[in-house]
């Protein structure tokens, strides 16, 4: 698993929020039968990642059922690059080769009121 033991402000952020907490990303691989004929079976593998996190000081406007009218609002995601230097922060981290849409766009947190 990948452990995130601390957070820092996004480069260039001048707001007053100071989010603290931790996160963990685990990968699992599963296999499922896709067909079976007599004694022969075909299996496909599925890979999934699970993100668990605990945040303190997160935006209280990110409550359950919040209307998110800005891209990445209330989002939690992993970036490519060095996130301590604004010029080196790249896009969201995922497998671009597959051609699938950015999976991080749908990952959000909800803050307790």
Task: Give structural notes.
This protein has 113 residues and is mainly beta. It contains no helices and five strands. A hairpin with a 7-residue loop joins β4 (79-81) and β5 (89-92). The two termini are 30 Å apart.
Structural descriptors:
single chain, 113 residues, mainly beta, two-stranded antiparallel sheet, 5 strands, globular
String of helices and strands: EEEEE
Strand line-up across the major sheet = 1-2-3
Query: How confident is the prediction overall: mean pLDDT?
Result: 80
Backbone CA Rg: 18 Å
Share of residues in helices: under 10%
Largest sheet, in brief, is: 3 strands, antiparallel
The computed structural class is mainly beta
Short description:
This protein is mainly beta. Helices cover 0% and strands 40% of the residues.
Write the topology of this structure.
Blueprint (H helix, E strand, L loop, with lengths): L1 E3 L15 E18 L2 E17 L22 E3 L7 E4 L21
Antiparallel strand pairs: 1-2, 2-3, 4-5
């Amino acid at each position: 698993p990948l452990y995130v033991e601390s957070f820092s402000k996004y480069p260039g952020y001048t707001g007053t929020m100071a989010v603290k907490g931790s996160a963990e990303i685990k990968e699992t691989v599963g296999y499922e039968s896709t067909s079976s004929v007599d004694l022969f079976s075909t299996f496909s593998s599925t890979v999934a990642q699970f993100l668990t996190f605990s945040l303190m000081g997160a935006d209280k406007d990110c409550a359950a059922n919040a209307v998110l009218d800005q891209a990445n609002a209330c989002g939690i995601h992993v970036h490519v690059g060095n996130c301590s230097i604004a010029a080196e922060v790249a896009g969201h981290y995922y497998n671009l080769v597959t051609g699938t849409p950015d999976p991080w766009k749908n990952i959000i947190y909800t803050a307790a009121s």
